[in-house]
Task: structure prediction
Amino acid sequence: VQLVESGGGLVQPGGSLRLSCAASGFTFSNYIMYWYRQGPGKERELVAGISSGGSNTNYAESAKGRFTISRDNAKNTVYLQMNSLKPDDTAVYYCGTKIMLARYWGQGTQVTVSS
Result:
């Protein structure tokens, strides 16, 4: 299983970023995918999840109305569109999945929201 995130960077408050996570090594279309984040000095927290077919999504309260999770099963890729970014969104963002009893994560991509 390999998960590779990209798309992070430095953005001003109010700005937008689109994160991508390319998956390989498993049948991507069979599994729920998640985005998590870990801010400085904080524990890793769930940001959003999307069902295997993409029809169902859920979000942390902090992400609702600003973030959108989506997936392209033909490209084995999950996305996180982040709008109206705030300094509190500064974190390393990870995509992840759970297969059988094992959890898998990518290496993460840094998002910094600062003026």
